[in-house]
Amino acid sequence: MFDVKGNLHRVLDTLPQGVRLVAISKYHPDDYILAAYEEGQRIFGESHEQELRQKHESLPKDIEWHFIGHLQTNKVKYIVPYVSMIEAVDSIRLLREINRQAEKCDRVVNVLLELHIAEEATKYGLSLDACRELLADGEWRGMAHVRICGLMMMASFVDDRDQIRREMQTAADFFDEVKAAYFADDDAFCERSWGMSDDYPIALETRTTMVRVGTAIFGPRVY
Question: Among residues 86, 97, 184, 191, which one has the fewest Cβ atoms lying within 10 Å of its Cβ?
């Protein structure tokens, strides 16, 4: 087996107190996830509803599953009964559907609003202005079955470390803006999810609270 345990500890040893690891397990087999689980890792990230459902059924039930990919509204009902957090809410329509399905399950689902800051058209997410508009509109305040816990973003996949740092810093500054404007008295709004295998050391400099690391732990994906 790939040295999952050794790699996991190499990543964990670099994380300061207050920063949590979301181990990105998509396309990796159950035994790799179990190897990390045996070392105490409990938060794992998946981006495909069907794969997530299969893993939820076959793996320990105290795993906290984060859905990290683009989520279609028609797939929400399948993961809402057990998912711990949906990290990539990119529209009010998706937020409404999560709330609707969570109400059916008598759950409150934690979510992050996904920002599109990277200079890449292929990435999903809300522009800063669209996120401001969503929050200012206020519909979310009446959604009793979703809890907005913070922001998520993906930096551009480039070699320019200064560009990556600028994008992450933009997200950190925007977090402060919306925290002050809408969540000043809400302790649950505290998460800043950015940083992956290639760039998470930069994320640590820009106040991330959750890094999403897969390849550095599990190796190349098994498709």
Answer: 184
Which of helix, strand or coil describes residue 8?
Answer: helix
Amino acid (1-letter code) at residue 73 = T
Partner residues linked to 126 by β-bridges: 115
Q: What is the residue whose two structure tokens read 């790939």?
A: 2
Residue the block writes with tokens 């979310």: 140
Backbone angles phi, psi at 81, to 5 degrees: -60, -20
d(CA 184, CA 177): 10
Q: How far is the C-alpha of 141 from the C-alpha of 146, rounded, in Å?
A: 9
Closest by alpha carbon to 32, among 9, 8, 62?
Answer: 8
Over residues 62-99, the pLDDT tens digits come to: 999 999 999 999 999 999 999 999 999 999 999 999 99
